[in-house]
Amino acid sequence: MTISNKQTAVPIPIQSMEQVKSHLHDAFGGTEDLALVTVLIGAEEGLLCYLKTMTSVTFMMENVIKPLSLLRQGEGEQDGVNRLQYLKEKCYGGLSGEFLSDIQALPKHLTAGKAGLWIHGVTSMLILDVMELISRSVDEPTTQTVVRGPKEGFTESAQTNMSLIRRRLANEHLRFDKYTLGAQSGTDVYAAYIEGQVDDKVLRKVKRCLSSNKVKSLFDSGSLEEMISSSPFSLFPLSYNSERPDAICALLLERRIAVIVNGSPFVLAVPAVMNDFFKSPEDYYQWFAFGTFTRMLRYLAFLFSLYIPSLYVAVTSYQQELIPTALLTSIAAQREGVPFPAVIEILAMEITFDILREAGTRMPRVVGQAISIVGALVLGEAAVQAGIISNINVIVVSLTAISGFVAPVYTFGANVRLMRFGFIILASILGLFGVIIGTVFLLIHLARLESFGVPYLSPFSPFRKAGQKDALLRFPILASSADSSSPVKEEERHE
């Protein structure tokens, strides 16, 4: 057992203006955004310190400096902390404030968007929250397009995101617990849940994950999603992420826990099951029959995206007898003169399409879409004309790529691309038997997978009759409830 010799630092009281300036200069060096302003508070000299990059000059003049200038001669001349208490009540009633007696904690307060006010003869400082930053306005989500429904999307401000959730859930039991992650970044992370409805075991696991993470920096919820995952090597996401407040609020009502990361427009929801990634909030804003139809299409598109290339390779290379004679003749005629086997064709086209998709994503928005579409058409047509690939191969790859975009959550559809390559390789070695073997191992993996103790295949495995009302089918709203669709059930919890 190792015994730590580290001792708690002894608090250093604040004694003089020179001491404060010297300590801040040592902490921040010669940074240009450190402001040290000498002010007069009645007949006494004081010091106001803050970071100009964490607030605005207008805000400081109107809300901090101006109230001091309005003090009459002789006001606030109490002794010690009583003087700071008077200033807090008289001048800064609208700002949250606290008292600081340890100068070593001052730099941390300044980097958090606060200002320190010191008065000559007082061994404490008044800390005021003066953060006033410009943030992006609430716009329509960019990755989850809305046809019918609320068009508000989360922003990079955690306070704004919490406000969007609070305005939709007028519930006094809605709670926001704050955590700070990242030794260098000091990122604020909030866990949102409805007290009394959320499962206590799941909540304890989430809190333990957020409290035990020792990372240097955290800038987006995607990094946190990987940190809290119980199976980081799984290709299936174990946390649901969304830019849509209505989607997160619906999951909160299903006894889930939302995780908000300051600086990220994507909010996580845990635990997440596979069925969540085939649902869309718009399913509940349309007639239930059409909502069921579109949900079934998503499941079908998932199977297309995962299996069509591997099945094409298997039947054209090994099990040709499964193809009708007329179609087999047509495929053979198209492949005549193609110098590569079917697996090389498929892999080459899949990789080329992924390159075009990545290029279209990273290029400037004005030309990115045109490059991806024109590039695919030109390269595909040129490759067919040159006899490098066949027409049927272009159709297979195109249908596969389009099916991959049907998933409401982009990250889920993107992960399927990697599994698709595995099935193609198995099909090229063992034919349909390879596809079947890959499917068996995939089902075993899914059956063993859990998200914070909840089975990933819930409510199908273990089967729960009440959960079928909002799984493959979307029953009428009055025939189902949020509680019946929630995967977090007493009989399904696992430690």
UniProtKB/TrEMBL annotation:
One Pfam family named in its UniProt record: GerA
Record carries keyword Transmembrane helix: yes
Top-level taxon of origin: Bacteria
Transmembrane segments: 257-278, 299-318, 368-388, 394-414, 421-447
Keyword vocabulary terms for this entry: Membrane, Transmembrane, Transmembrane helix
Coiled-coil portions: none
Signal peptide: none
Keyword Membrane (UniProt): yes
Family: Belongs to the GerABKA family.
Protein name, per record: Spore germination protein
Organism: Paenibacillus solisilvae
